[in-house]
Amino acid sequence: MSATPLRKPSADTAFDVERIRADFPILHNVRPHGKPLSFLDNAASSQMPQQVIDRIVRYETHEHANIHRGVHLLSTLATEAYEGARRSVQRFLNAKEDREIIFTTGCTEGVNLVMHGYGRKFIGAGDEIIVTHLEHHSNIVPWQMLCEEKGAKLRVAPIDDRGEVIQEAYDALFNERTKFVAISHVSNALGTINPVRRMIDVAHARGIPVLVDGAQAAPHIAVDVQALDCDFYAFSGHKVCGPTGSGALYGKAALLEKMQPFKGGGDMILSVTFEKTTFNTIPHKFEAGTPPIMPMIGLGAALDYLSAIGMDRIAAHEHALLEYATEQVSALDGVRIIGTAREKAAVLSFYVGEVHPHDVGTLLDEEGVAVRTGHHCAQPVMQRFGVPATVRASFAFYNTFAEVDALVEAIRKVQKLFG
Ligand code: 7TS
Q1: Is the CB of 373 under 6 A from ligand 1?
Q2: Is domain 17-30+311-418 classified as CATH 3.90.1150.10?
Q3: Is 377 a catalytic residue?
């Protein structure tokens, strides 16, 4: 066991995390097993500040109606709120135009939309799709389904023992059959930040479009889709302090226009006869039916909230938390950290001796520390590191160094119990 005194970086006070925490009612309302809550399961879903809750209440109490085509006041207000949220996403991602933002129910739907809209139209037998070994299942399975349907092939860029994609191996996967690349910006199981700009450049040198799964990046680092030059960028609202059922997909306008719709129905058409339907312009072509209006308005409010704090300040605070947690947890005897990439964000995955991660998670919960245990929907990552599961602590900007201390103390208790 480490005798290292717990050193708390000064970033804690500079950032005024307590003022931020005051915005999050759930952090104060819930005391698991009578203990203060240390919510370290943000990679699964982050919490919602009062500002977002208030925005949702305002919509439901003053603006609720169906959007588009309505002539009455409430429909106009709801449409303005919904389209305003689209502009919030555009600003957050620094997209060139708001029509490049498609609302989705989350990152999973964004990937599936591109698979159906782009993949099924432009990828055929013998073609190849490149992914990496550290993808979440939602950026593997849709591509596998497409490969199955079309007779295409999935190629996987390997990772090293740190959990970094081996760039030379990634480069070597490209050939004349390569038609698409789908890579995560940040790994949910390991926290690795991929050098996506570089990886996109390699693909673009061959004219190949790239989808970036940004589910674990959007909450933690400033994303600029124009600077990245990615063709698609997908993320989930519930991981950026917004509601579940919200999310967005960025796509370059020229590509979105070439794609086929994902779902058919109302709002995605310009005209319908039994002989022929003409589709609406983007983004509406991809938003069939009544969308989850309230969640998207909440998403817009959440992104405005994050932007007001500043993604660079958020990244700096979380980086300090991660460094502190890495130092403290790795100093514990018998604790193995899974994922030691040089560039990491907000995720600390580990194994405590021989104790099964589920047992660790249950015992941590008794101490008020909420972490996730399991394969994190990244089974290939678990296979690569030879473990069935990990304990994963994942941080948000409202977490404190004291919560890291609570995590470390709780792990010590687990170790004592298992001798
Ligand atoms: N991509 C990554 C990298 C993710 O981490 C997740 C969700 C998804 C895609 C899918 O997002 P969804 O909102 O559509 O489900 N990751 C996790 C996680 O790590 N624990 O719970 C969900």
Answers
A1: no
A2: yes
A3: yes
